[in-house]
Amino acid sequence: MRLIDARIRAARDRQTAVGTVQASLSASRATVTFDGSALAVPVKVLAHASVQAGSRVALTRYGSEWVVVGAFGPPP
Hints:
single chain, alpha+beta, 5-stranded mixed beta barrel, 1 helix, 16% helix
């Protein structure tokens, strides 16, 4: 039980992540599937990050919001 609690705590406290854009909703909004997950979640996109569906992205959590801070290479 302690191991499970530790894994949940570590996942909750995570501040950075990598994922794949499922849909670009606007210049500042997208949905991203985080690595290891099957559920796409809404995120914010910084102005300098150009993303579209299929883009691999780096994310950082600011408060309760996940924000795309960069993309790995050009969109597919």
